[in-house]
Amino acid sequence: MQNSKFYRVVLSLAVVCAVGLAFVASAQVEGNVRPSNAPRISGRFEPDSIGIGDRFTYSIEVEKDLVQTIIFPNFAASAGEQFELIEDVPVDTLERDGRRLKLRKSFRLAAFQEGMQRILPQVMYADKNIIDTLYGEDTLSLMVTTFQIDSTSHSIFDIKPQKTLPFRFGEISGYLMWSLVALLLIALAIYVAIRVMRHYGKSLSDIFHPAPPMPPHEEAFRALERLYVLRLCQHDKHKLYYSTLTDILRRYIAARFEVGAMEMTSDEIIEAMRSVELPQKSAMDLTEILREADLVKFAKATPEAEENEAAFTAAWDFVEQTRPAEESEENEE
User: Fold this and answer.
1) What are the tens digits of pLDDT across the range 112-161?
2) Cis (ω within 30 of 0) for the bond into 47?
3) C-alpha span between 307 and 291 (Å, rounded)
4) Are residues 201 and 131 in the same domain?
5) pLDDT less than 70: residues of the chain
6) Which of 99, 202, 308, 322 is buried most deeply by CB count within 10 Å?
């Protein structure tokens, strides 16, 4: 009797366990069942065998419906120490058939751990109220090989000392030849320059001496000639004409008589020139030019053409009559 009761209890427990296991198995099967239109995922390595540190391509291909959203893994963050991301290739559309799309996402990776490396392709997808992670059917395998270092048959040697090579003339012969040619060309140029300068009564030292300053009256004559060529009065630029004319006279007076005419008014110049011995006509010409220039510049007077010519002639005569006497005597001889 006791044995029969014991067997009944054991049999009851076995039936309960079997029912529980069947329920759990059915629940797992129901949880793993995917909808018929769920995306299909596959992957591959190209190549599937590399040396350590070499690069390879990891590709994930997904076939999905047009409205389904696929999120590929962020391989830069998920690779960790297993692989190193070299390039994240954009998603490529391989095929489209009605509402079905075939996409491919590739990663350029490098492996630095030897041995067999395995990855199960996976993506996330969203469809209506479903958000799930999809896995590929096959686990991908990548063989990473390395080279063996035989430290027993090879010895480690110290750094070799620096080797001193014998001097060879051929190493510098090219430099010496071109240096000699350059020196000959420089000497020829100096010789030609000396001959040309002697022809014109100059010496080589004159090159390094600054040219002597131009005498004030010559500078004034050249400036007056340039002013005459411009014909400013014929273009109704009377103010510019008289301003330029008086500036020429101011510079000449400042250089010839050492009077600060450039910072003086017309009246101050006339007063300062009273202490200078000038021909009476020159003093009168200077006063007339300055007075007439003030009328044109400040009173907007418009002189006639004859008055413009007379002012120019008076300025020229003033420079001619007041230039150094030595220059005048040399020109007369």
Assistant:
1) 888 898 888 988 888 877 888 888 888 999 999 987 766 677 677 788 88
2) yes
3) 13
4) no
5) 1-36, 77-81, 149-151, 154, 204-211, 326-333
6) 322
Angle (nearest 5°) at CA 310 between 302 and 247 = 75
Domain final residue, candidates 145, 164, 195: 145
The two structure tokens encoding residue 45: 């390595």
Contact of 61 with 41, CB cutoff 8 Å: yes
166 is a domain residue: no
Q: Tell me the whole-structure pTM to 2 decimals.
A: 0.41
The alpha carbons of the chain give a radius of gyration, in whole angstroms, of 53
Same domain flag for 255 and 199? no
Residue 320 neighbours by CB distance under 10 Å: 13
Q: Among all chains, which residue has been given the structure tokens 């027993």? A: 152
In a domain, 164, yes or no: no
CATH of the domain at 129: 2.60.40.10
pLDDT digits (tens, 9 = 90+) for 200-213: 777 766 666 666 78
Q: How would you class 243 by CB atoms within 10 Å of its CB: exposed for 0-12, middle for 13-18, buried for 19 or more?
A: middle
Could you tell me the two tokens for 139? 């686990």
For 15, 70, 215, 217, 317, the CA distances from 254, given in Å and listed in that order, are 132, 92, 12, 11, 17
* The token pair that represents 150 in the structure block: 């035989």
Residues 47 and 130 in one domain: yes
Q: For residue 139, which of 53, 70, 58 has the smallest C-alpha distance?
A: 58
The count of domains in the chain is 3
Q: Is the dihedral of CA 293, 296, 301, 302 positive or negative?
A: positive
The domain in which residue 187 lies consists of 181-210
Distance of alpha carbon 16 from the chain centroid:
81
